[in-house]
Amino acid sequence: MDPLTQGALGAALPQSASSSKQVGSAALLGFLAGMAADLDVLIRSSEDPLLFLEYHRQFTHALVFIPIGGALCALVLHALLGRRRGLGFRETWLFCTLGYATHALLDACTTYGTMLLWPFSEQRFAWNTISIIDPLFTLPLLLAVVLAVRLKRPQIARLGLLWAVCYMGLGLVQRDAAEEMGRALAAERGHAPLRLEAKPSFANILVWKVVYETNDRFHVDAVRASLWPRVFPGDSVPKLDIDRDLPWLDRNSQQAQDIERFRWFSNGYIARDPIYTNRIMDIRYSLLPNDISPLWSIELQPDAGRRDHVRYRTHRDAEANSAATLWQMLTRR
């Protein structure tokens, strides 16, 4: 999730466990600790552009790391804030740990994938119930946090947590409805999907991206679940076949290894870009939910050395047009 949402949820939980006198301190410490796990984005390399993909949402997001993360936050924040606000270290540690504990679970509700069980498993949990940015989730939660501080009433923060749980529950219902629509669409086409996933489109839980896999292709469509259900047909693309798509690639090269690293990160949803043929796309994410144009990809160089890495690319073209089209999907009956 975005840092503001992580901080708001990180503030709400320790607020709910605080007294009226400590509600402001709990909010501040929980807000900062709730964002702290994303400091793993600093683990990156100028030589290896995929390194950050392996470490983002890894050990700092593991459930077993929560007490450690909370303690590290408390060690830093007690001297800066906790002691000045009259808190003992134990109270600072409690508020920081509660705030830190919300981070990974909230991230797992998104579509990116979070290694909750590291180091015992590298499975990336993605429950696909909310977009990484969703104002309808964040703003009421943030309002509850602010009002709890202003009025010194932890009960308001508890209402904010209740809103968060209810919204996630609604997202789960919407996800299941979108998956059912996706299965019905595949059946109409005579397809028997090997796997199918529905992911919320940007900033809402009404329009969903449906991706399903057949023997040789990935199919991408969008559906509007529940309110005036509607299908927005998309496109399909052949699954990556290295022998067919990249016959020049040395299988023992670093670029070949990077493809497998990218395949792991993308949960196998990779295909060659039909326009830029030396690019490999993660088709799970796009600006428009019925589009195969990716948000990120890797680019290979046929003349690269055996130890050269691929290049990592992000794509944010035509954002204004995409936003207008998504708004039409959301509002048009």
UniProtKB/TrEMBL annotation:
Domain of life: Bacteria
Regions that span the bilayer: 63-81, 93-113, 125-149, 156-173
Pfam families registered for this protein in UniProt: YdjM (PF04307)
The protein's name: Metal-dependent hydrolase
One annotated GO molecular function: hydrolase activity
Keywords: Hydrolase, Membrane, Transmembrane, Transmembrane helix
